[in-house]
Fold this sequence. Notes:
B: alpha+beta, two-stranded antiparallel ribbon
Amino acid sequence: MSLIVITGADGHLGQALATDLLDRTESRLALFCRGDDEPARARKLTRLGRLAGNPRCQVIFGDLDSLEPMAELAREDIRYVVHCAAATDFGVVRELAQRVNVDGTQRVVDFARACPNLERFVFPGSLYAAGLREGSVSEEFLEEPAEFANHYEWSKWEAERILQAADDLPWQIYRVGTILCDDISGRVSQFNVIHNTLSLLYYGLLSVVPGAADTRVYITTTDSTVATIVQQMHDGEDRRILNVTNPGDLSLSLRDLLDRVYDAFMRDERFAKHGVLKPLFCDWESFETLAQSIDSFGGAMAQSLKSIFPFARQLFSDKDVQVSTQDVYGSTADVGDLIDATCDYLTATRWGRETGEGRQCA
Amino acid sequence: MDTYINHMASALGSRQQSLDDAGSLGQLMSPAEALRDSGFFTHHVCPDDETALDLALAAFNASGIDAPSVDAIIYSTCLPQNGSESDMPLFEETGDVKHVMRFPASDLQSTCGMRDAIVIGLNQQACTGMLGALRLARCMLIAESTFDNILCITADRFPRGAKYEQAYNLISDGAAACLVSREQQGYRLLDVHHITNGAMVTASDDETVGSYFNYSGRLVDETLQRNDLSLADVRWVVPQNTNKKAWQILSKLLGITEEQAFFPSIDSAGHVISADNIINLSALQSSGKLQSGDKVLTFMAGFGSNWQCALLEAV
């Protein structure tokens, strides 16, 4: 029976892919997770839940610094390597981004090279590997942009370069946009910078938003991303780059997105009663001043702004993302509908707190 | 009918202290360095025996207002307890509520000889109270021909044990006074616009900061619209003495240039509760920079939540 190795299998996308692959294939899965000590490993097993107990799954603890624990796998059985492990915090420091996202990717690539029957090396990257470039983002390797908003973006671009050099490997790169929600229901099980921003807006803590009003925003859903990857990893071509998000011509601008969010929030009694006004757009310098000033005073708002800060410069960088592959919604899912559904979920559950389902990402 | 603001004066708590002094006395919530970086340096506090009424008397005495000519006193306080000099021990001893109704406006009227003045207390508009008093005075002058001179006065001291910091601003105890009259002198009072969002009555410091920019923007926009003006028609903007970082952001959002903004008292006094506008308007008059016909916008945000903006024109 063929074996699929998934690194970062306890992460949001890793788990979603593992679950889908169990359903859609008969393969065994090797779930590679970081586990520094016993308590951490116990937590990860809990997080993996039913995946950990599935007889077709084998959980392997290790670290991208050394893939020694994967030596126990029979390499000739490995057909697919899905490399999800990454430091995903936009505020990641350069050294960690280098070690995990760049050097770690190199090690997994080297590991995959030693698998004689490998059919595909799948790399879920980031749309923001494009950095702060403006204009067209095609499904080809990108020249190094003049600037990246943060080290995470840079490390994802560097990781793509590693694959570009690995022309002996049947790789596929999936540049994933910002995951807004699990699916069209709007449910959110992994909270990221966009949810933090929406939370600040909802609670009236952010009366200015960094960004240019016309900047397009690229979002997707977990199920759409997973369906695209699973379908393409089996049926797609080698050495392809796919942008997994809504295409540029179907995107909402930041202004339209905020209008939609505001309208959705106004359906919530608490928000409507609270008289929160629509935020104003501010330039980067003003937002930087606000974030640094609030940071010097400390408090809850400082923490929230800190999470937005490393990503905020992207909101001034308008991209026209080209998308060749239809997602599960046919690339035509009304982005506005996704925003409506997500906002309804977030307000109804108070950002997942009232369901206990929400999980903050790094 | 035109109304004017003149005879502006102020008084500050008699003890001046540095940020570091305030920090060492436990009167700050934030690090002194963070406040210094935001434009605050020294502030004024009342010693134990100095009351808000003392400050009001000092401001009135500095104003040069002819007391017998005053027809009405609008006495505004940010903190409601500064609107009553209650004798709580006597009340607790006797159960007689008259001991919690010793009103400073009456004391002021009597002490200063404003024998014909009626008194009105205004104490639920927080830091915006002085601008609320100006609005009320203007309306009274327009509505009742028997009124000619209305004293608007605001006075607050923080209670003992209070932190002298609110929403990341360093606070001074202080008072300000001015006369709103028909006499063509000082500033012509063209309009006062007010927004209240009662749902934010319990706003946290972060919520206060969070709403500051867009509500201030709305306030200024609506004030200008009400008067068929644009910001280009306004020569001076006199904001409250707010955290300079917040002001940098707001001025950019509104399109106000550094040269248009005038709030020189922030360094020495910080945010003087409801008195900032009058202190800075008076300083603008004294600066020699103000020209006849210059339009001036002055605004304030306060708990409640309230936002008020007055549009003035230099005589």
